[in-house]
Amino acid sequence: MRRRLLSSTLVVAVIAVLLLGVPLGVVVSRLIVDEAAQELGAEAKRLVGEVEYARVQETPLDPQQLEQKYPGRFIQIWERGTPLRVTVVGEPPPSGHLMTEDAQTNTGVYVRISRDRDQVEQDVRARLLLIVALAVAALAVAVSLAVVQSRRLTLPLQDLAKIADRLGSGDARPSKHRYGIPELDRVAQVLDRSATRISDLLTREREFATDASHQLRTPLTGLTMRLEEIVASSDEPETVREEGEAAIVQAERLTAVIDELLAAARRQRHAQAEPVAVDEVIIQQITEWEPVFRDAGRILRLEGTRGLKAMATTGGFGQVIASLLENSLRHGGGPVTVTTTCGENYVVIEVADEGPGIADEIAPKIFERNVSGGGGTGLGLTLARALAAADGGRLELVLRRPATFAIFLRPAEDDGSRNRVVSGPA
Fold this sequence. Notes:
Elements lengths: L1 H55 L6 H7 L4 E6 L5 E5 L8 E7 L4 E8 H52 L13 H51 L4 H29 L3 H4 L1 E4 H18 L4 E7 L2 E4 L1 H18 L4 E7 L4 E6 L27 H11 L3 E6 L4 E8 L7 E7 L1
Catalytic activity: ATP + protein L-histidine = ADP + protein N-phospho-L-histidine
Protein name: Signal transduction histidine-protein kinase/phosphatase MprB
EC number: 2.7.13.3
C-alpha cells in the first residue's frame, strides 16, 4: 500500500508539474525575448533622437561616447546628405546571430541597433533551468509528503491488523489506540467495542460454567438423598414408591434448572416471566429440603399470606428459594421461617433463621462473587440475586442478626382469593 501511495502521489505531482511548468517555460521564454526586443527598440528610438539633436546643434557624433553609453551593442547610423554619412559603433557579434531593431526620422536619419541573440537565449536557458530546479524541488517535496502520509496511513492500518488478529486469537482487551485520522479512529472504536462485547461474552460463558456447576449441585444432592431413601426403604414398597416419585420430581427440577441456566446465560429470562403461584413453589422447595433439615435437627416453617401470585419463572424463583434454604442450612441455626406478604408494589418472601447472623464485615458485600461466611463457594447468593433480577425482582438482606433475606417480586393480577393463614411446621 505504501508503494502504491508513493507511486500515485509521484504520478500526480509529475502531471501537475508538467501542466504548470511547460506553459510557464514557454511564457517565460517569450517574455524574455519580447522584453529584449522592446528594450532594443527603445534604445534605437532614443539613439535617433540623440543623432537628430546633434545635427541640429551641428555637433559631430562621438563613436566612443556612444559605445560607452550603449555597451554590447552594434550600432549603424546613416545620415542623409552629400555625401552620405555612415557611423558604425561597436563590433558585430562573433556568432553572427543578431537581434536587430531600427528607427528613422523624416529628416533622413536612419539608425539600426543590434545585439547578440545568444545572450538572450542564454538568459532564457537560465530561467528555464530555474523552473526545472523548482519543479524538481516540488517533486521532492511531494515525494517527502507522500512518504510521511503513507507512513501515517499504513502504520495505523498495520496496528489495526494486529489488534484484529489479537482479537481473533481470544485476547479481547480493548486497545484504546487513536491515530488522529477520523476514519481509522472509527475503525479502532468499533474494534474496541467488539473487544468489549467479546470479553463480556467470554466472561459470561465462564460465569455460566461456574454457575451451572454450583446450581446443579443442589438438585443433585436432593436427588441423591431421595435415592438413598429408596435404598434404605427397599423393604417398604409404599415408601419406595413415594421416594421414587420424589426422585422423579428432583430429576424434572434438575432439567428445569438446566433450562433456566441456559436462558439466563442468553439473557432471556426476564421476557419469560409469568404469573406464578408463590405457595406452590415454596411448598415444593420445603418438601424437598425438609428431610435434610430434619436430619440436622432443625425445622422449616411456612407463614404469611396464602394464595399470592407473582411475576417470575418457576425454575428461577424455585432456585432462589433453594439457594436461601441451603444458605440457612449451612450458615444459620435454629428453625427457618419462610414468610410471604404482599405490599402495594411487591410480593415479599422472607427467609429467616435464628442463627448467629452475618458478620458486619461481610454483610455489605454478601452478594458479591466468591464472598462466603465460611465453607461455601461464595456463588449461591450471587446467583440467587441474579435470578431474582432476571425475573424483574430483587433479593436483599433486610436483617443481619438473625439473618433475614427478602425476595421482592412484581405482583400478578389480584384474583381476590387471598387470605391470612399462619401455619406451623411444614
